[in-house]
Specification:
The model is unreliable at 1-15 and 92-106 (pLDDT under 50). Helix 5 packs across helix 8 (350-367) and helix 6 (217-228) packs parallel to helix 7. This protein is mostly beta strands. It is 13% helix and 40% strand.
């Protein structure tokens, strides 16, 4: 008996010794991976270390090797893979030595990598040493952690996944690699230290590697699982680690994360070999980044090596991997960035190149947050398309990948960021117009409508002291809404629109006044014989001189109408002429630069049932029509808004050469006649809804566009520089299937512009707001 017990004990000891670390990936049909994992490990004598639920269904465990085949045959198991080790992808020689690293930086220093991708020359990124613009985007850094107390970084969350299970609010960077990567992505643009590609981007530290710079695949999968669970918040992830092996569990996790809308920038590796042998660099769903050597931040192959000799200037980094799977390259040698302890240092490697691309992806994602694989692919395509060929590839692979280039202001910009107004009620909420006072306070009022208990109700919001607040407007009769607003002073605003006394009774003109504390209705007379009417826009030259425009229904026909506010009462102005051949016409907007000059714009329907744009001017006593200049092939057109500086005006709208396409229409009034201005239309369908001019040489226009017939409609902004119109990237809320900016107003003292409109999410319209900083 004793002999038998000894034999059994010996067998148990052998079984205990012959164990390995594995990742078990379960099939998607498994509903509760944690329950299955516990049951399987109890039966197979395994020790569970992590459970995955978001990027994939599965778990990591230590178990006897002789149980692996049986586990693979379990019908609930997709595959079982060894838990491989990965490591950071920087040079073996640490550069923060006494001789050449971790220098104390007291003033702002521009890293060569930031210069080499032409970020400083892009005025829309505003890299000037002032912390006035930050990228409105969230970037996860899967690495050795981030020094979350570093003053040059905005670290908003951290987690440590080194045990295989992610524990929030833990994880120090005991190596420095992750902190260095984070600085290149998003170091704040201020008077100290360095600046990142996407200055001030919100960083999420996902510690998946230990302080030695290595970690098991199970920890990496845990980090990707953590990111995927927050795909609605996180737009971009940087991965500067790899393994010359196959990591199928990590690949599957990343694929799922990309499907959820997260962009992955991944380092190619530093073996001077083909990146196809390195995981996850060989994943076709990530953006794989090689590295160039650049020592002066300038093209031209002129500089000598600085911190280390890693190849000639503007050539492939001597150790960078290469191959057909690499889409883009970026600076990766002698890169200055943040390191722990409120410090800065140099590092080299493709680990340093990848965060340049992650930062550029973050700039794009800030304006159009990805929420699908198609969105991720769109960002990848933009990065590749905008790259340049100004470097020499010495790899011999026959493929010159583009060098990252963020110089295009119309694509890479920090100017516009989301700044959402409030959404009262539970139904549709839409904002149509806003007005901002021209003082240092920059207070703004936005108007529109929302559904309140099934009834259309005026929506008024006030932006003051950095936030939006709701204001209560009168709601006469039944349904009512505001369409236009003007604020001639800090304590005086007028909103116009229409209302119904009872449901189906017909729309009547509406005007309400704000005296600095409350809104009150003002009587608006109707033109003679009018049975209905609506006021769509208003312009004021002073608190006692405002003009509102819209339409009145007379004998069943819509005709343009204008009313005048003299400081105490509203009165119908002399009739606005009707365009020749019009079967219906209305004015949509008006701007008044003085009591004797107003410009109104709108559209009419001709005998063929087509809409055409028209304008009318007020000279203090009467209205007169002014002919616009349309593109040659115009079939239909309309004008939606106008902005005047003294006697110079800019009007915007849209024109169509046929039923399928629609393009931006911009008209310029020089004081005596209109001329057509060329403006870019961003895709297959584009329309400008509103314009505001600070000066005769500086205007901002907003609207919406659609790239292709099947693409979602997104927000649009154009900037007039005095010589040309340029498209600026604008934000769209994540998950939006439609987005439009329909009102814009700017504050001359601060050069800040705000746009409002609405977006559609899950079938419901919600208010949309965006802010543009800088001239």
């Amino acid at each position: 008996m004793i002999c038998a017990l000894l034999v059994a004990a010996g067998a148990a000891n052998a079984r205990t010794a012959d164990r390995g670390r594995y990742i078990v990936v379960l099939k998607e049909s498994v509903d509760h991976p944690g329950t299955v994992a516990e049951a399987q490990m109890e039966r197979r004598d395994g020790n569970l270390s992590a459970v995955y639920r978001h990027a994939l269904k599965g778990y990591a465990a230590t178990l006897p090797r002789d149980e692996v085949d049986a586990l693979r045959n379990d019908p609930r198991v997709a595959f079982v893979t060894p838990d491989h080790q990965a490591s950071i992808l920087e040079e073996e020689v640490e550069l923060e030595t006494e001789e050449n690293g971790a220098a104390e930086i007291l003033e702002a220093t521009l890293p060569t990598g930031i210069s080499r991708i032409f970020a400083p020359g892009n005025e829309a990124l505003d890299i000037d040493g002032e912390d006035d613009l930050r990228a409105d985007v969230d970037v996860a850094v899967l690495d050795t952690g981030i020094d979350y107390e570093h003053p040059d970084l905005d670290v908003v969350a951290r987690t440590s996944c080194v045990t295989g299970t992610c524990v929030n609010n833990t994880g120090e960077d005991g190596h420095s690699h992750g902190t260095h990567v984070a600085g290149t992505i998003g170091a704040i643009d201020n008077e100290e230290g360095v600046v990142g590609v996407a200055p001030g981007a919100r960083m999420l530290a996902v510690k998946v590697l230990g302080d030695a710079g290595t970690g098991p695949e199970s920890s990496l999968v845990a980090g990707v699982d953590w990111v995927t669970a927050r795909a609605g918040e996180i737009e971009v992830a940087n991965v500067s680690f790899g393994c010359p092996c196959s990591m199928p569990a990590l690949e599957k996790a990343i694929n799922s994360s990309v499907e959820a809308g997260v962009v992955y920038a991944v380092a190619a590796g530093n073996n001077n070999g083909n990146a196809s042998s390195v995981s996850p660099a060989n994943n076709s769903n990530v953006i794989t980044v090689s590295a160039i050597a650049d020592y002066d931040g300038q093209p031209g192959e002129k500089s000598s090596p600085t911190c280390a000799n890693n190849g000639l200037d503007d050539r492939k980094y001597s150790k960078s991997n290469y191959g057909a799977g690499i889409e883009i390259t970026a600076p990766g040698v002698c890169i200055l960035s943040t390191v722990p302890g409120n410090n800065y240092g140099y590092k080299s490697g493709t680990s340093m190149a990848a965060p340049h691309v992650a930062g550029a992806a973050a700039l794009l994602a800030a304006h159009n947050p990805p929420n699908s694989k198609a969105d991720v692919e769109g960002i990848r395509e933009t990065l590749v398309k905008t790259g340049n060929t100004g470097w020499l590839d010495t790899s011999g692979d026959g493929s010159l990948e583009p060098l990252l280039d963020v110089s295009d202001e119309s694509i890479f910009s920090l100017r516009w960021t989301l700044q959402q107004p409030l959404n009262p009620g539970s139904g549709d909420r839409l904002l149509f117009d806003l007005a901002c006072d021209q003082t240092e306070s920059g207070d703004c009022t936005a108007v529109g409508r929302y559904m309140n208990a099934g009834v259309t109700t005026p929506l008024v919001q006030r932006f003051t002291e950095g936030s939006w607040s709701l204001q209560t407007a009168k709601a006469p009769g039944g349904a009512s809404a505001f369409d236009g607003v003007a604020c001639p002073s800090e304590s005086s605003c007028i909103a116009v629109g229409g209302y119904e006394k009872t449901a189906g009774s017909g729309v009547l003109m509406l005007a309400e006044h704000w005296n600095g504390s409350s809104w009150s209705e003002a009587s608006t007379p109707s033109p003679k014989n009018a049975t209905a009417g609506f006021l769509a826009g208003i312009g004021c030259s002073s608190t006692s001189a405002c003009t509102a425009v819209g339409y009145a229904v007379i004998s069943g026909v819509r005709k343009p109408v204008a009313e005048r506010w003299n400081g105490s009462t509203w009165a119908v102005e002399e009739s606005v002429p009707v365009p020749a051949g019009a079967t219906s016409s209305e004015l949509y907007a008006v701007d008044c630069s003085s009591s004797t000059f107003c410009m109104a714009v709108g559209f009419y329907t001709n005998g063929s049932g087509k809409t055409r744009g028209f304008t009318a001017t007020w000279n203090g006593t009467s209205w007169s029509l002014k002919a616009i200049v349309e593109p040659e092939k115009t079939v239909e057109s309309s004008l939606h808004d106008v902005s005047c500086v003294e006697s110079a005006c800019t009007a915007v709208g849209a024109w169509q050469p046929g039923p399928s396409n629609q393009y931006n229409l911009v008209q310029r009034w020089n004081g005596s006649e209109w001329s057509l201005q060329t403006s870019p239309s961003n895709g297959q369908a584009s329309v400008l809804q509103s314009v505001w001019c600070r000066t005769s040489t500086s205007c901002t226009a907003v609207g919406n566009f659609r790239s292709t017939e099947s693409s979602p409609i997104k927000t649009l902004a154009l900037q007039w520089t005095g010589t040309e119109w340029l498209i600026e990237p604008t934000p769209n809320p994540s998950g939006a299937t439609f987005g439009a900016l329909v009102g814009v107003s700017c504050q001359a003292p601060t050069d800040t512009c705000r746009g409002v409109g609405w977006y559609t999410e899950s079938g419901t319209n919600k208010t949309l707001g965006a802010v543009r900083v800088g001239p």
